[in-house]
Amino acid sequence: MRTDAMDKPWDLLGNTLKMATFALILAALAVSRNHLIIWGSVGVLGLLIVLVLFSHYGEKVPMLIFFLFMALTILFNRSFSHMALPKPPFYVTEMTMALLTVMLWYKGQLVIPRAMRPWLLWVGAVMMIGLIFNGPRFGWLAVIRDSAELYYIWFVPLSYSLYRLALPLLSRRTVEWGLATALWLVPLVYLATASIQLPSTAESVSAMLILTLFIWEWHDVPPAMIWPALILNMVSLMRWGARGPWVGFGFAVMVLLILAPKVKGQFLARLKLETMVSVGVCLWLLGVLWLVDQPLLAHILQDLKSLTTFHGHYSQIANNRWRLIIWEEAAKQILSNPYAIRVGQPWIPEKLVSLGYGGWNATQGFAQNTVALSNSYLQMMQWYGIWAIIPVGMIVYHSLKRLFQVRPLGPNQVLISTFLAIWAVVTGVEVVLEGPYMSAIVWSVMGLAWYFPQWHSVHKKEGAA
């Protein structure tokens, strides 16, 4: 039987080794001029600090890392997510996924719902087949990077496991104040750092916040702190001219109109009143734009008109035409052999070159020359044929099934549904699931949908208490 006296020498030795390691790393930082050594030392030092905190605070550390990671991803999207450790294709997102997975597994808190397991195994098998057969042909780094469209799906069970730990600890009041803070902080950061923001991400998140403002049942935060944020988020939604989020927002509003009458209580009446007020705010904002910046208003209206126009010299119309060309060519390639796995294969349609587009939007990374389709659904089928879209579709189906199994329908279910509606559209017109900056958000919302019945149960008990 061990005693405290027997443990003390080992504790002393462990603490001494930690201090010696920290001292060596700091010494390396002080004397080295090699950037690789400096960043490597910083990374090791950061990892050691995290592990020390993890040994003392347990599951609270991965919870904190996850929410900090998501906050930075939302606020700075590509500028944060494309930080490479140590170089592409291994970004901060991959490192965070790996670290959180190991921490949760070590504590026995990595939970994969039974209904999710066969589909995740299917996705993993397809990804491994692509790596094994296409890695030697097209280059390992190219295939690994393109495989991100599948391995980022790991955020569904990962976020689900972290929601199980974190959300029962957060009261409704805490969640509400967090959302109210986001209503102001996110658009302010977006507008202050406009030059580094990725439009499709910033505008999609702004659309999510506008819907949150309307749908969430506010109890603790005064209305005077909520509704002025509507103008900020509307400006942020229109600021960059990425039209996919506008269409996604419109689709989300349609979903809201379908689901709202099914919610019991005063939800529909409240929504009607808020909508009337917001229409007035929109008209006022248009009037201000007309008086202050007519060219900007004309530019926004021209972007809106371009949504249904495919002939002309305006840049957004040219972008429409470019998308139609590559989608048509990709569809032809897929239909020629829907079972082929082409992940990592270089691809630029000859039709693009013949029409004068050249290699516009072609990436040179990882020794390949390929065009991103700006349509994650089509991209998945081009790279993996029918083999990946089926299990991914089933994961989405089961997430929605879990979300709507709670009866009667409540505002929070409607809110999550509108989030998914936005991303369902944006995923079809942008590079979403292939990159770390948007896929982490999409799959984490999916994980929230999967966890919703348990979250509802916890907060129902809180309300009863």
Automatic annotation (TrEMBL):
The UniProt record lists the keyword Transmembrane helix: yes
Coiled coil feature spans: none
Keywords: Membrane, Transmembrane, Transmembrane helix
Membrane-crossing segments per the record: 12-30, 36-54, 61-78, 90-107, 119-139, 151-170, 177-198, 244-261, 273-292, 381-400, 412-429
Origin superkingdom: Bacteria
Protein name, per record: O-antigen ligase
Organism of this sequence: Sulfobacillus thermosulfidooxidans (strain DSM 9293 / VKM B-1269 / AT-1)
